[in-house]
Amino acid sequence: MSDKKTTGIWKVISASSMGTMIEWYDFYIFGSLAVVISTKFFPSDNPTAAFLSTLATFAAGFVVRPFGALFFGRLGDIIGRKYTFMVTLLLMGGATFLIGCIPSYETIGFMAPLLVLVLRLLQGLALGGEYGGAATYVAEHAPAGQKGYWTSWIQTTATVGLFISLMVILITKSTLSKEAFDEWGWRVPFWVSILMVLVSYMIRKNMHESPVFAKAKEEGKTSTNPLKESFGNKYNLKFVLLALFGATMGQGVVWYTGQFYAMNFLKTVMSVDSSQVDMLLGIALILGTPFFIFFGWLSDKVGRKYIMMGGMLIAILLYRPIYKQMYTTTDLTLKTEIVENTKVVPSIKEIDITKTDSIYTTTKTYTDGTAVEEIKTKHFDAGKIMLDDKGKDKIETKITKSINSSDKWMLVFLVFIQVIFVTMVYGPIAAFLVEMFPVKIRYTSMSLPYHVGNGIFGGLLPAISTYFVTSAKDAGNPEFYLEGLWYPIGIAAVCFVIGMIYIDKKINTLHD
Q: Whole-angstrom Cα distance, residue 167 to residue 256?
């Protein structure tokens, strides 16, 4: 490739990637702050229900992504790639900023979760139109035979967006006191996004339309009804369904298991300190991100199919051993407590004239350097302890583990392995989808299976898996923490079988 062409495509990638990265940042700060958000926008009398409600709201943004893919995909195939994902960028940025402005549940009651849900749905619609536009735009600038390599740069944006969201949260936490962050500082990452969106908008505004689409439009070969041609045509619909059930469905659950489920698992099931989780996840993401490029490049040489299928198969086989090792790494029953260092500090918090909380904070240290803070809260009403929905004393226990250096690096390694699975299934997927569909309906046709696979099957993973874990724990299952993995394992297994049987290597050059 000539220097001029190389410079040109790097400009395209830089502009497309920056905007897409910011949209993923906007989308993921909600998930990164799920534990905090559950206490702000939902009733606080049942923390588990509040957290599950937050995950459900998080998932709602994924569920509507296919509708965004249809709406914006149609626009992208009719009026152009550039202008469509300019709109999605502004819609996403505005919704994110406004989430950071919504008053808490204590202030406006049920209007708080309702407004969050509405804005979350707008985020999902916007993201449904963004990815397909960016991936198509880059692919249509890339030389033949190199689409895997060049589009893999777009594939890094989701992970980089998540990484930046974690870093902004960490910086905000380290700048503010714990009380200030809990009170209002958690809103800062939402507010910061509007500045990044405006910068990205100015960069994207100067971009030119995709040359492939511009040529098709000039020759009058664009579609007047992309939805009908994409899904009403049996031949094309066959490829849409194959893309969904043979690739993106499995790719979606592997992606969200390796990054979001791992994060929620560390914070809620293993009770590791939130800042430590963000840091170790950030390290694993930095180490793993270059492999998106590697597997995208490799897919140009050996084909997309076996790299993606290989990533799914290895994930299916190794998820349970990996998560068992993660849980065992910080299992307090396997550590030796320094009993003489244990401290219990009681305190009383008056909520109103009739209600009080009796709080007992216990700090423990262990011989390997692990430190644990255990907070037990008893709720009293008119001098009597309140009862839970099972008629027992309402006592809430919150455990926070500060892990030692050895455990931290073990967890970094275990999350890094999962990120490698992600890079295998996700690195080649954009080129794979672009090559399956003709130019005039490409934006619409590739966007729908991608966002159904990721938005529905992947986006529902945190809520469904957390529910499985909670149910197994209530049932007394000693390995309750592994039950949530059956969902991604099952979905990936079905996708692997379909992909291996029906995906033909010729798809790589179908519309190259």
A: 19
Number of helices and strands in the chain (H, E): 23, 5
Amino acid sitting at position 320: R
**E strand segments, 128-186:** none
497: left (phi over 0), alpha (psi -120 to 50) or beta: alpha
Distance CA 6, CA 4 (A): 5
CB 28 within 8 A of CB 35: no
Left if phi > 0, otherwise alpha if psi is -120 to 50, otherwise beta: which for 385? beta
Picking from 14, 215, 122, 128, the residue whose alpha carbon sits closest to that of residue 455 is 128
Q: How far apart are CA 206 and CA 220, in angstroms?
A: 25
- Residue 315, judged by CB atoms within 10 A of its CB (0-12, 13-18, 19+), counts as buried
Residue 297, C-beta contacts closer than 8 angstroms, at least 6 positions apart: 148, 149, 152
Six-digit token string for 190:
């939402």
Q: What is the CA radius of gyration of the chain?
A: 24
Cα distances from 165 to residues 122, 179, 195, in angstroms, run: 19, 20, 14
Q: How far apart are CA 73 and CA 75, in angstroms?
A: 5
- For 369-379, the pLDDT digits (tens) are 999 998 887 77
Question: Model-level pTM?
Answer: 0.80
Q: Which of 495, 484, 502, 504 is nearest to 247 (CA)?
A: 495
Answer whether 434's CB lies under 8 Å from 259's CB: no
Backbone dihedral region of 216: left (phi > 0), alpha (psi from -120 to 50 degrees) or beta?
alpha
Joined together, the tokens standing for residue 200 give 């990205």
Are the C-beta atoms of residues 224 and 462 closer than 8 Å to each other? no
pLDDT in tens, 148-205: 998 898 888 877 887 888 888 889 988 988 888 888 898 999 898 888 888 878 877 7
